[in-house]
UniProtKB/TrEMBL annotation:
<dbReference type="Pfam" id="PF08239">
    <property type="entry name" value="SH3_3"/>
</dbReference>
<dbReference type="Pfam" id="PF01551">
    <property type="entry name" value="Peptidase_M23"/>
</dbReference>
<feature type="domain" description="SH3b">
    <location>
        <begin position="113"/>
        <end position="179"/>
    </location>
</feature>
<dbReference type="InterPro" id="IPR050570">
    <property type="entry name" value="Cell_wall_metabolism_enzyme"/>
</dbReference>
<protein>
    <submittedName>
        <fullName>SH3 domain-containing protein</fullName>
    </submittedName>
</protein>
<dbReference type="GO" id="GO:0004222">
    <property type="term" value="F:metalloendopeptidase activity"/>
</dbReference>
<dbReference type="InterPro" id="IPR003646">
    <property type="entry name" value="SH3-like_bac-type"/>
</dbReference>
<dbReference type="InterPro" id="IPR011055">
    <property type="entry name" value="Dup_hybrid_motif"/>
</dbReference>
<dbReference type="InterPro" id="IPR016047">
    <property type="entry name" value="M23ase_b-sheet_dom"/>
</dbReference>
Length: 308
C-alpha cells in the first residue's frame, strides 16, 4: 500500500522544511507568520452522512467489503487517496485507522484538519497542484477551508483540500491560518493593551506580554487557532493558565482562568473551548490575559487575530 511510503515522504519533507526554516529564521528577516503554512496533521475525524457506508479492503468499489459504518458514526482518518485516482466518479477515499477504506463523498469532516482562510479576493480551486489544472470553482476573501496536505511546488505551494466531496487544490500563498477571538464576541473590550505600561498592582513601568480582555468569570475561552496544548495548570502570577503550540512558530497562552478543560499533549481545534475565564493569580479583576509568541518573541495578539 502506498500510504506508508507517502507518510515517510511527508516526514522527510517536514524534516527538510524544518532545516530550511531554521536556516532562514537565523538570518535577519523576521518570518511572516504564515509563510510556511499551518501545521499539517494528516489525521481527522469524519462523520458518516450516508445511511450505511461500506468499509473496503482497498480504495475501490470492487474491493472486498470488510465492514459497515452507519449514519452519524465518527471515525479517524489517517490517510486518503491522492486526487487523480478516480474510481467510478468518486475521487477521494479515506483510510479508516486499522480498518480499511471508505468513500469520502459520504462523510463530513468533524475535527482535526487545520483551517485556513482565503486572503485573495478570489482564489481558484483546481483539480491538481498547478495553474495548468482545471478550475473546479472559486473561493472568496475570508472563506475558510480545511487543509489535508501541503504539496510543495514552484512557484506556489498548494494545499490539498476537500471541496464539494472531492479532492482539490488551492495556492497556499493566498491563505493564512484561520483564527478566532478567544472569547465570545460580546467580550471585545481591551482593558490593557500589549506593550509597556504602568503595572496596575505595583505602579512600576513594565512590559505587558498580552492583552487583557474584560469578561466575567466563567466565560468560555477558545483556542484562537488549532494546535497542541503544552501547558495546562497553575503558572505563578498567570494563575490557572493554558499554553498552545500552533506548530508554525506561533504559541498562544491564556491566563487568570477559573477552570482548565484541556491536558498537556491534547490536540485542540480552532475555537475549541479550553477552559473558563476567571480572576486567578496576579489579577485585579475578572478578565482574560491573552498572549501570543512568534518564534520565541512576544507579539501583540492583535497582529494575529481580528478584534470583533
Ligand atoms: Zn494582562
Amino acid at each position: 500500500m502506498f500510504s506508508g511510503n507517502r507518510r515517510r515522504m511527508a516526514a522527510r519533507l517536514a524534516g527538510s522544511a524544518m532545516v530550511l526554516f531554521l536556516l532562514w529564521t537565523s538570518f535577519l528577516i523576521p518570518a511572516p507568520v504564515w509563510a510556511d503554512g499551518p501545521p499539517i496533521d494528516p489525521t481527522a475525524e469524519v462523520e458518516v452522512t450516508a445511511d450505511a457506508l461500506n468499509i473496503r479492503e482497498a480504495p475501490t468499489t470492487n474491493a472486498r467489503i470488510v465492514g459497515v459504518l452507519y449514519r452519524g458514526q465518527r471515525v479517524t482518518v489517517d490517510d486518503l487517496t491522492p486526487s487523480g485516482q478516480t474510481i467510478e466518479g468518486v475521487s477521494t477515499w479515506y483510510h479508516v485507522a486499522g480498518r480499511g477504506w471508505i468513500s469520502g463523498a459520504y462523510t463530513r469532516v468533524v475535527r482535526g484538519w487545520p483551517v485556513v482562510e482565503v486572503t485573495a479576493d478570489v482564489l481558484n480551486v483546481r483539480s491538481g497542484p498547478g495553474t495548468g489544472y482545471a478550475i473546479l470553482g472559486q473561493l472568496r476573501w475570508g472563506e475558510r477551508v480545511e487543509v489535508v496536505h501541503l504539496v510543495r511546488g514552484s512557484p506556489y505551494n498548494w494545499y490539498l483540500i476537500v471541496y464539494r466531496g472531492n479532492t482539490a487544490y488551492i495556492a497556499a500563498e493566498y491563505t493564512r491560518p484561520a483564527s478566532v477571538w478567544p472569547l465570545p464576541t460580546a467580550y471585545r473590550t481591551i482593558t490593557s493593551p500589549w506593550g509597556m505600561r504602568i503595572d496596575p498592582i505595583d505602579g512600576q513601568w513594565k512590559f505587558h506580554d498580552g492583552i487583557d480582555i474584560a469578561a466575567p468569570s466563567g466565560t468560555p475561552v477558545f483556542a484562537f487557532r488549532a494546535g497542541t496544548v503544552t501547558y495546562a495548570g497553575w503558572n505563578g502570577g498567570y494563575g490557572l493558565y493554558v499554553r498552545i503550540d500552533h506548530g508554525d512558530g506561533v504559541t498562544s497562552f491564556y491566563g487568570h482562568l477559573s477552570r482548565v478543560d484541556v491536558q498537556v499533549g491534547q490536540r485542540v481545534s480552532l475555537g475549541q473551548t479550553i477552559g473558563l475565564s476567571g480572576n486567578t493569580g496576579r489579577s485585579t479583576g475578572p478578565h482574560l490575559h491573552f498572549g501570543t509568541w512568534v518564534n520565541g518573541r512576544s507579539v501583540d495578539p492583535l497582529t494575529l487575530v481580528r478584534r470583533p
